Amino acid sequence: MSETPETPQKFVVPIGPQHPALKEPGHFEFSVDGEIVTGASVRLGYVHRGIEKGAENRNYAQAMYLMERVCGICSHVHATAFALGTEKLAGVTAPARAQAIRTIVAELERLHSHMLWLGVAAHEGGFDTLFMYSWRDRETVMDLLEAITGNRVNYSVNLLGGVKVDITPELADQIRKGLDFLEERNQHYLKVVTTDETFLGRTQGVGTMTKEQAFLTGAVGPTARASGVEIDIRVHAPYAGYPDFPVNLVIDTAGDLLARFVVRIKEMQESCRLIRHILDHMPETELTVRMPRRIPAGETISRVEAPRGELFYFIKSNGTDQPERVKVRTPTLCNWGSVINFAPGHKLADMPMILAGIDPCFSCNDRLISIRRNEQDPQLWSWEDLRQYGVQYYK
Amino acid sequence: MDLDTVLQTSETLLQPLAESMNRPEPNRLDVVVIPENLVEAVKILVDNHWGYLATISGLDHPAAVEEGAEPDGTLEAIYHFCEGPAVTSLRVSVPYANPVIPTICELVPVATLFERELMELFGIVCEGTPTTDHLILPEGWPEGVYPLRKSFTGFSQS
Q1: Nearest chain B Cα to A310, which residue?
Q2: What's the ipTM?
Q3: Do A298 and B24 touch (CB under 8 A)?
Q4: What's the number of domains chain A is made of?
């Protein structure tokens, strides 16, 4: 018998880029030993659109609309972060009522985002009934957002120096009524995810991350808070309406997938409470203040708490009406670090749940698109080229 | 601890390594360090549990266009550490000709993602970083083209 030198072999299971967990593109490679994952790597960029570069060629007002399109789920926080940063550079403060409205919309957005996640995560766990119920109830929030702003997705509430929509007493009543329903439903969901035996089997003790690990791998938002890390920009560095209307920190120390469900559902309850509180104490001021077109040269940092965690904007101005540099660091990018670290040791079958557990948002952390006609000829297409290509393709 | 004490702490800690320091905003401290001192500066913040690394921002400073001047712009990497509302930013500048910054991944594992971003989009070389694969740009992206440098204005229509 001839001796063959033993070479360490690993079997790599690729997941993605199409629909690795959520209906968004990302590519993961898990090396496995039987059923158990031994290593993980991530490749992003499938929806990178060059937004940071794009912002450098637009004026501040245009750039704000562009920033709102970084993400289709949490569009409002991006515009808010950019508006707050630009206002700081210009030495302008938006009126109190505008800040309160920004905060209400931000919390409604958190509600819709967490409910969307609850559905997706339940679906990954094979619990489609919960998925359908939570998405049905999410329509309540979407209707409220539409009633306030006229849009379901890119609400476009912010202006530089204020907001463009007001909340009338009638609208406030409509919101309160919607919240009544949502609070009742959330109570029910909290009971379901913490008592349903089969679902607990998929979440309890799965994907556990200790407080130290969470801190070391740079986790943010509900993912970190479910591991007991006290990090919430709304609490620790309040912005917009949060200094006047403080929010309570929701935290859990278990660190597993179940804790991530519990933290998010409790956060929704906290959002409902906060929105009610603001509606009852709406400041009576103007909605906007004047903003200069040219922003004085300077640098600023604007941090806000997106539904997925800390959103970080670094804005550098140069005295013109266009930003010199806009750096965006989205919460999902930080949370990938944590997934890559705690994935090894788990079953491959748990990976979709673990990926979904951080509530990843690919559009957020990918921001350039380049479409190539062929390998030798990389080039950007004009709108007209794209239109022609589309016409030809579907002929 | 209040904001001022927190910033005072980082100021005292980083004083020996700083080339210069200033407070651009009430909640911020900017510390300019030379690339050789970066790892040491990060180690001081990490060892003293001063905040966490929020991100690394890249900046491109192309040389001013002057007649006969040697075109030598600089690239800047800014390491933002956050503690509550306070932000300490370590600023490192390197010339186009030798854009090398040491990696900080051994101290802050999450930095690998931010460093890959710096390498791809600005062409800064993070010496010793564990992964140099593309994170964001597509496979087949031409070598030496860094989209967030000011000189990049898109590919020509040919």
Answers
A1: B54
A2: 0.91
A3: yes
A4: 1
